[in-house]
Amino acid sequence: MRHIISVLLENEAGALSRVAGLFSARGYNIESLTVAPTDDPSLSRMTLVTAGDEDIIEQIKKQLNKLIDTIKLLDLSEGPHIERELLMVKVRAERADREELKRLVDIFRAKIIDVTDISFVVELTGAAEKLDAFIDAVPAGLITEVVRTGPSGISRGAQGLTL
C-alpha cells in the first residue's frame, strides 16, 4: 500500500542524506521525495512517498523516528489529508495544434507558462490522477518533456505536523 509520510526535521546539512541512506540500507524504495524549509528556517518538512505492507511501513516510521534530525513524523495516509502534485510538460505546439492544446489547457485548468514559435510549457497542479489524465489527453507524439514533483500533502482538520 502507498503511504505519504511527512517528517519535520532539523534544517541541517546531511539530514536528507541520512534519510536516503536509511532507505537504501534496508532495501526500501522512495517513490517520491520533496523537502523544503518551513516558516521556521531551522526546520524542514520532508514529504516522502513509499509503498509496503503495514509491517514495512511501521519499520520505516520507527527507523525515521530514530534519526537524530527527526523532530516529528506523521503518516498522512492514516487520516484525512489533501495531496497535490505539480506537473510541467513541454509540448510541440506548431500552428495546427496550438488551438487544440489551448482548449485542453483550459479544460484542465492548467496554465501555459512559456510560449515559443514551436512549443508550449504547461503547468498543472492537482491529484496524480488529474495529471495522468492530462498527459493521456495530449495528442500522441506532441509531448517532448515531462517533469513531476511527486505528491506533497497536508492533513485536514486540527491535526498537523507542528511542534
Written overview of the protein:
By secondary structure, this protein is an alpha+beta fold. It has 2 domains: 2-78, ACT domain (Alpha-Beta Plaits), CATH 3.30.70; 82-152, Alpha-Beta Plaits. It is 29% helix and 41% strand. It has helices at 15-26, 54-66, 95-107, 128-137; strands at residues 2-10, 30-37, 43-51, 70-75, 81-92, 111-115, 119-126, 143-148, 152-155. The strands form 2 sheets. Strands 5, 6, 7, 8 and 9 form a 5-stranded antiparallel sheet that branches. Strand 6 and strand 7 form a beta hairpin. It is elongated. The mean pLDDT is 92.
Query: Beta fraction of the residues?
Result: 35-45%
In CATH, what is the class of the largest domain?
Answer: Alpha Beta
Helical content class: 25-40%
Largest sheet: 5 strands, antiparallel
**Count of discrete structural domains:** 2
- Which residues form runs of ≥5 with pLDDT under 50? none
Radius of gyration: 19 Å
Concise synopsis of the structure shown:
With 163 residues, the protein is α+β, with helices and mostly antiparallel strands. The chain is built from 4 helices and 9 strands; from the N terminus they run βαββαββαββαββ.
List its salient traits:
single chain, about 160 residues, alpha+beta, Alpha-Beta Plaits, 2 domains, five-stranded antiparallel beta sheet, four-stranded antiparallel beta sheet, about 40% strand, elongated
